[in-house]
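REVIEWER CHECKLIST
Item 1: Sequence provided? yes
Item 2: Single chain? yes
Item 3: Sequence as submitted:
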Amino acid sequence: MKPSSLRFFAAGMIVPAGLYAATCGAAKPDAMDAAAVAPDVYKTVIDNETVRVLEVNLTAGAKEPAHSHVWPGVIIQDGPRPGSPDQVRNFKISWEPATKLDKGGVTKAPLHYLRVELKKGDCAPVKNPPLPATDGVIAKDPTIKVALENDYVRMLEMEVKPGESEPPHTHTWPTVLYYYRLPTSRRGTTDGKPAVDRPELTKEQITWEGFSQPVHTLLNTGSFLYQAHRLEIKPVTDEAVKK
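Item 4: Structure as written out by the authors:
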């Protein structure tokens, strides 16, 4: 089912030991795939061997057709934050399994969200993948919140107030990086290169980072809250989870 302002959930995926089959990552979209039956609603913004990112826009009263999702995914839904400027939003994060058939329905209120689908979401996860001490969560960066974590993903929400900065930290796993809007900022590293001033971002930006990030920090030089969502994709094996 699609997310709504009235019904939202977040759940981890627990994989029992020993329930592994031989192959995984072979699922392909079927004839009822959401992006095929409703391309005006489900817009594909990233599609690679690891993830597919769909941007979903529904107007109030819109009828969503029946559809399927062959891969599990993470939903990032945004909505207004009372008392804040339009650039600052509230976000709801949830995990949704693969769905053979979503009957769709009529949307009561305008709805905008991302669905980040994991193409290897049926592969057995690597148990306790290591992270360095400089990882933002391990280093207890106060600007980082873990909004969702299971065996396959870790969703980091970053918020930096105007005039404040993140402590130095790293990121290791491949990532879908999502900005709704951004104030001006200054990014610094420890490699001796000068800090980089970044302009205000006036429209959303969704990118794929298939690489680790070295030690870096960020200063919010703007007039509103800096918000970022980093969906980290954890490593998996080549063995499938038995259904």
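Item 5: Key structural point noted by reviewer: The chain is about 0% helix and 45% strand.
Item 6: Recommendation: ____
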